[in-house]
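STRUCTURE:
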């Protein structure tokens, strides 16, 4: 696990950036399953009067070598909230509230927040991540006894707060190749440090780089989302590898293709 305090260095000037210092206007690939969130926050809220605000986040992964040669594990990026902000010193994924004036879509919210909070640029939005529980099952999220639950229609987590309902959607995101290994640039007024953590650390709630100190997530719903994100990343990897294997098998000569019984092309 890698941790670091906030870097106060300014982001490099990019003439292709939005005026609000959002992510550069580079193509972002959307995968099937994300189209429901390719709508404006205003239109989304208008279609769901039971929801009052939308928050979008991003889970980013990177492979790292373990002590065993050729044994890779994946880590995800977590941010620790500033002591002066709400939910002080608690851990979360890069995320923020949708702004109708800045975000043409809910997907854009996740892309913008990832850039603003870390300096990482999204390249591909793969899929939304759920809590990993049924829509009718709630999960305790804080000492006030509030419950979060999955929506019955969309891959969003519904969180009650101050008498209102927030829709929280977290996306599995790929960033520009190599960018996930560069120094993450934080905004000190929002986050005090970042960490690359493994699934084991999240499941056991122990930070190896801090002598086993427990995580303090913004909510139990956040922890469950992160665990589900690890599962989704692995599932996507397996699906991609299966597709590649099928393509290789289909393009190989019949006498090299184990799926074909005939070897009639061999002489």
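SEQUENCE:
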């Amino acid at each position: 696990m890698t941790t670091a305090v906030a870097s106060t260095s300014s982001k490099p000037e990019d003439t292709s950036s939005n005026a609000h210092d959002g992510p550069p206007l580079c193509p972002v690939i959307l995968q099937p399953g994300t189209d429901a969130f390719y709508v404006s926050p205003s239109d989304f809220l208008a279609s769901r009067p039971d929801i009052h605000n939308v928050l979008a986040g991003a889970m980013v992964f990177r492979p790292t070598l373990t002590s065993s040669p050729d044994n890779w594990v994946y880590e995800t990026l977590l941010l620790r909230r500033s002591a002066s902000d709400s939910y002080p010193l608690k851990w979360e994924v890069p995320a923020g509230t949708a702004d109708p004036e800045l975000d043409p879509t809910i997907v854009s919210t996740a892309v913008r927040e990832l850039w603003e909070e870390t300096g990482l640029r999204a390249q591909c939005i793969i899929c939304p991540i759920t809590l990993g529980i049924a829509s009718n099952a709630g999960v305790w999220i804080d000492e006030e006894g509030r419950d979060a639950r999955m929506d019955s229609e969309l891959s969003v987590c519904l969180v009650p707060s101050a008498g209102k309902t927030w829709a929280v959607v977290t996306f599995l995101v790929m960033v520009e190749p190599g960018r996930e290994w560069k120094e993450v640039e934080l905004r000190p007024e929002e986050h005090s440090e970042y960490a690359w953590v493994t699934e084991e650390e999240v499941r056991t709630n122990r930070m190896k780089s801090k002598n086993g100190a427990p995580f303090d997530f913004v909510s139990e719903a956040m922890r469950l989302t992160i665990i589900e994100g690890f599962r989704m990343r692995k599932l996507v990897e397996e699906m991609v590898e299966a597709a590649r294997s099928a393509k290789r098998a289909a393009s190989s000569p019949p006498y090299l293709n184990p799926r074909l019984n005939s070897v009639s092309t061999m002489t």
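REMARK: The chain has one domain: 2-206+213-256.
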